[in-house]
Design a protein that fits this description.
three-stranded antiparallel sheet, 154 residues
Length: 154
Protein backbone atom coordinates (compact mmCIF):
# COMPACT_ATOMS: atom_id res chain seq x y z
CA UNK A 1 0.00 0.00 0.00
CA UNK A 2 1.19 3.36 -0.88
CA UNK A 3 1.00 6.54 1.17
CA UNK A 4 -1.88 7.91 -0.88
CA UNK A 5 -3.95 4.82 -0.32
CA UNK A 6 -3.36 4.97 3.47
CA UNK A 7 -4.35 8.65 3.50
CA UNK A 8 -7.52 7.85 1.50
CA UNK A 9 -8.47 5.06 3.95
CA UNK A 10 -7.91 7.43 6.94
CA UNK A 11 -10.07 10.11 5.37
CA UNK A 12 -12.80 7.55 4.58
CA UNK A 13 -12.74 6.24 8.20
CA UNK A 14 -12.82 9.82 9.55
CA UNK A 15 -15.82 10.66 7.35
CA UNK A 16 -17.62 7.45 8.40
CA UNK A 17 -17.12 8.32 12.11
CA UNK A 18 -18.24 11.91 11.50
CA UNK A 19 -21.37 10.80 9.61
CA UNK A 20 -22.21 8.25 12.36
CA UNK A 21 -21.81 10.94 15.05
CA UNK A 22 -24.02 13.36 13.11
CA UNK A 23 -26.64 10.64 12.57
CA UNK A 24 -26.80 9.99 16.35
CA UNK A 25 -27.10 13.74 17.04
CA UNK A 26 -29.88 14.09 14.46
CA UNK A 27 -31.79 11.12 15.92
CA UNK A 28 -31.57 12.64 19.43
CA UNK A 29 -32.62 16.05 18.07
CA UNK A 30 -35.63 14.44 16.38
CA UNK A 31 -36.64 12.85 19.70
CA UNK A 32 -36.33 16.19 21.50
CA UNK A 33 -38.43 17.94 18.84
CA UNK A 34 -41.07 15.21 19.05
CA UNK A 35 -41.24 15.56 22.86
CA UNK A 36 -41.40 19.37 22.58
CA UNK A 37 -44.23 19.12 20.05
CA UNK A 38 -46.17 16.79 22.35
CA UNK A 39 -45.57 19.13 25.32
CA UNK A 40 -46.81 22.16 23.37
CA UNK A 41 -49.92 20.25 22.29
CA UNK A 42 -50.65 19.23 25.91
CA UNK A 43 -50.14 22.77 27.16
CA UNK A 44 -52.44 24.10 24.44
CA UNK A 45 -55.11 21.54 25.35
CA UNK A 46 -54.96 22.59 29.02
CA UNK A 47 -54.50 26.33 28.45
CA UNK A 48 -57.63 26.86 26.39
CA UNK A 49 -60.05 25.78 29.18
CA UNK A 50 -57.99 27.71 31.74
CA UNK A 51 -58.23 30.87 29.65
CA UNK A 52 -61.98 30.36 29.28
CA UNK A 53 -62.32 30.00 33.07
CA UNK A 54 -60.17 33.09 33.63
CA UNK A 55 -62.32 35.06 31.21
CA UNK A 56 -65.48 33.96 33.04
CA UNK A 57 -63.93 34.93 36.37
CA UNK A 58 -62.96 38.36 35.09
CA UNK A 59 -66.48 38.95 33.79
CA UNK A 60 -67.95 37.90 37.15
CA UNK A 61 -65.55 40.20 39.02
CA UNK A 62 -66.51 43.07 36.75
CA UNK A 63 -70.21 42.45 37.45
CA UNK A 64 -69.54 42.38 41.20
CA UNK A 65 -67.52 45.60 40.99
CA UNK A 66 -70.39 47.27 39.15
CA UNK A 67 -72.74 46.19 41.96
CA UNK A 68 -70.34 47.46 44.62
CA UNK A 69 -70.05 50.77 42.77
CA UNK A 70 -73.84 51.10 42.73
CA UNK A 71 -74.00 50.29 46.46
CA UNK A 72 -71.26 52.82 47.23
CA UNK A 73 -73.07 55.56 45.32
CA UNK A 74 -76.31 54.71 47.19
CA UNK A 75 -74.47 54.87 50.52
CA UNK A 76 -73.01 58.24 49.56
CA UNK A 77 -76.48 59.51 48.70
CA UNK A 78 -77.90 58.23 52.01
CA UNK A 79 -75.02 59.87 53.88
CA UNK A 80 -75.63 63.22 52.24
CA UNK A 81 -79.38 62.92 52.95
CA UNK A 82 -78.69 62.08 56.61
CA UNK A 83 -76.35 65.05 56.87
CA UNK A 84 -78.95 67.35 55.37
CA UNK A 85 -81.62 65.95 57.70
CA UNK A 86 -79.34 66.39 60.70
CA UNK A 87 -78.59 70.00 59.86
CA UNK A 88 -82.31 70.65 59.23
CA UNK A 89 -83.30 69.14 62.59
CA UNK A 90 -80.52 71.04 64.36
CA UNK A 91 -81.56 74.35 62.83
CA UNK A 92 -85.29 73.70 63.39
CA UNK A 93 -85.24 72.38 66.95
CA UNK A 94 -81.82 73.48 68.22
CA UNK A 95 -82.57 77.15 68.72
CA UNK A 96 -85.94 76.69 70.45
CA UNK A 97 -84.57 73.94 72.72
CA UNK A 98 -81.73 76.19 73.84
CA UNK A 99 -84.26 78.95 74.57
CA UNK A 100 -86.49 76.55 76.57
CA UNK A 101 -83.49 75.32 78.56
CA UNK A 102 -82.40 78.88 79.29
CA UNK A 103 -85.95 79.79 80.30
CA UNK A 104 -86.12 76.78 82.65
CA UNK A 105 -82.81 77.74 84.20
CA UNK A 106 -84.00 81.31 84.71
CA UNK A 107 -87.26 80.14 86.28
CA UNK A 108 -85.38 77.79 88.62
CA UNK A 109 -83.04 80.62 89.67
CA UNK A 110 -85.96 83.01 90.14
CA UNK A 111 -87.83 80.57 92.37
CA UNK A 112 -84.67 79.95 94.38
CA UNK A 113 -84.49 76.19 93.83
CA UNK A 114 -80.91 74.95 93.95
CA UNK A 115 -79.67 73.42 90.73
CA UNK A 116 -76.81 71.14 90.00
CA UNK A 117 -74.15 73.82 89.60
CA UNK A 118 -70.94 73.65 91.65
CA UNK A 119 -71.72 76.90 93.47
CA UNK A 120 -75.23 75.64 94.41
CA UNK A 121 -74.03 72.33 95.90
CA UNK A 122 -73.27 72.55 99.65
CA UNK A 123 -69.56 72.12 100.17
CA UNK A 124 -68.24 69.46 102.49
CA UNK A 125 -64.94 69.86 104.21
CA UNK A 126 -62.64 67.43 105.95
CA UNK A 127 -59.21 67.71 107.50
CA UNK A 128 -56.23 65.54 106.62
CA UNK A 129 -52.76 65.53 108.15
CA UNK A 130 -49.99 66.66 105.83
CA UNK A 131 -46.59 65.03 105.59
CA UNK A 132 -44.87 68.23 106.81
CA UNK A 133 -46.80 68.23 110.08
CA UNK A 134 -49.47 70.80 109.09
CA UNK A 135 -53.01 70.12 107.98
CA UNK A 136 -55.08 71.16 104.99
CA UNK A 137 -58.78 71.25 104.18
CA UNK A 138 -60.37 69.38 101.28
CA UNK A 139 -63.50 71.01 99.88
CA UNK A 140 -65.30 69.01 97.21
CA UNK A 141 -62.15 67.39 95.93
CA UNK A 142 -59.98 70.53 96.13
CA UNK A 143 -57.17 71.17 98.58
CA UNK A 144 -57.27 74.58 100.24
CA UNK A 145 -54.04 75.95 101.77
CA UNK A 146 -54.07 76.94 105.46
CA UNK A 147 -54.04 80.74 104.68
CA UNK A 148 -57.21 80.50 102.60
CA UNK A 149 -58.84 78.21 105.15
CA UNK A 150 -58.69 80.94 107.79
CA UNK A 151 -60.39 83.38 105.41
CA UNK A 152 -63.22 80.94 104.71
CA UNK A 153 -63.93 80.24 108.39
CA UNK A 154 -64.08 83.93 109.33
Amino acid sequence: MSGGEVAGILVAVFWAILVSFLAVVLVRLAQVLKAATKLVADVTDQAVPLLADASTTVRSARTQLDRVDAIASDVQEVTSNASALSSTVASTFGGPLVKVAAFGYGVRKALGRPGRNAEDVPQQSSRRARSDGGSHTVIVGRTVPAARRRKQKG
